[in-house]
Specification:
The complex is a heterotrimer of chains A (about 260), B (about 230) and C (about 100).
Chain A (H helix, E strand, L loop, with lengths): L1 H20 L1 H21 L4 H27 L1 H5 L2 H7 L4 H30 L10 H25 L7 H28 L4 H31 L12 H17 L1
Helix pairs in contact in A: 1-6, 2-3, 2-6, 3-6, 3-7, 3-8, 6-7, 6-9, 7-8, 7-9, 8-9
Chain B lengths: L3 H23 L13 H28 L2 H32 L8 H22 L4 H27 L13 H49 L3
Helix pairs in contact in B: 1-6, 2-3, 2-5, 2-6, 3-4, 3-6, 4-5
Chain C lengths: L1 H20 L15 H61 L1
Classes of the chains: A mainly alpha (about 260), B mainly alpha (about 230), C mainly alpha (about 100).
Chain lengths: ~260, ~230, ~100
Amino acid sequence: MRLLRQTWLLARNDLRQEARRLELVLTAGFFTLVVVVMFALAFFALDGSVQRKAIPGMVWLCIAFVGALTLTRVFDRERESNTLAALLAAPVERLAIYLSKLLVTLVVLLSCSALLVPGLGLLFPSSQVFSANPLALVALIVLGCLGYAAVGTLFAAGLATSSGKNVLLSVILYPLTTPVLLFALVATQRLLEGHPELWGTLSQIAALDVVLIGVGAWLFETVLIGAAHSSPAHSSPASNGSARAAAVSARARSKPVN
Amino acid sequence: MKYIPYALLVGAAALFPYCVQRVFLHTPIEAEMGTAQKIFYFHVPLAWICMLFAVICGIAAGVQLRRRSERAEALAVAAGEMTVLAGVGVLITGPIWGDATWGTPWTGDARQVSTALLWLVFVAYLLVREYGPPNSERIAAALAIFGAIDVPIIYYAVKIWKTTHPQTGVVGSLPQSMWNTLFICLAALMMLSIALVWIRAAQARLAIALDQAWIAADTQQRAAQPA
Amino acid sequence: MDELNVFEQPEQPEQAQASTEAPGEAPGTTKVEGRDPATVRLKRAYEAEVENKVASDYSHIVWAYGVIWAIFAIYGAILWRRASAQRADLAALQAKHK
């Protein structure tokens, strides 16, 4: 209960700040719009049956791009105001930090999908089948985004304090999230085809989400502590990247002496 | 202890000629795929080695995070490199074999795609370790753990994804003599890869120790200079 | 079509041979059985196909084995170089301490 309350408090705090500035939602939403327009320009010539095969790819590629963009920004506020160390020192469960960030990412991704799916429906007529089964559509988008965000939040937290390493996030994120994206692709395909096993696939995604969130919650603390303590003052000499740099400079200093 | 990897290397070097001789002269030619199936005897063990070291890398990374053990960290790095190396071997020999028997190098078969995805995860691991920020060894360890957990998930995900695509030919059942040859090749490759991982892990530990020694010497020197 | 053209060439002398032997059943010679042009052509086609297959298998196998061994050799060479660099590093450290 305490965990849930803390999670909700942290998430509410983030969401309130977000509601004040709308920075994440507006940038990500605009990016979604741009991607949809680019898809429309690139694929406008596809005819009906081919369109239906291409649409799952468009949906999840767009979410993967927007997700990577959002995740690089989710922890930025902590980095800029250096609140991550303070947050770790505060009597807050680490799991609550993870879950609240996950929630924020999920909210941003869902608001982007709210733009993405109708947009695709408008530009690609064959994707209007989506509206036939709104419940399954919502479940699919929520579950897919949840799995993506569960992996993404973990690594975004790890890379939070390092500036200019956002490429690394994409390098990590895309291979690791491929399984959940593949499941989501299959489910979307089945949704479009009206496949009877749709709910089976959706429950598989739900199970995968549980695994991903579990692993993410398990690893979050170690990754985050590494991130918060990466400033040179805290670094232990053992097996550390900054130790590597220090050793390199130590060797360089010894050269002119010899 | 120090000479075990070199003994393994010597053993592998002795076993390899025998493997090749056995593969080409003493094992019958497979009826459906013909001589090109000889690639199988090194391709399949390499794939197993790739998976095995992926899992070892994940476990070692878990131990590294839990115990803050340098030994486990060194092993994780070495195993990660071996995974990528064996993965390159598998991903190159696979299409060569496919080209010889199926007529196309890349059929998009579930195993091909899942091996490629696993390989990507571990390439990301090495990239993060090499070019990551100062705290990257923890992120990389988390990545390796995720990768090891992902091994079955990736395979299943690709399999379910494949159901929307046409199926392709699969390797049928093979006679016992071919499996025996396969296991001898597996033994040779295992000896080689364990030796290389061992040497690499020792090097990683030595590198950490050298870094520490240099820093210690440097701080000593700098403490002495102003006085 | 391409394959057929290839086999047309060696077929010529074969046919000539068959035609010389067929009419002249001279005493002291035995009749050649089962060498009619159709069978010979078929056999030739099979032989050529097998030859192509063997050549292709051969090159595929050589490439595959070469790639595997090259990968391990390159990795071994990298390890070797790293080891010698570390040895030099250690020597430099020891020289500094003296």
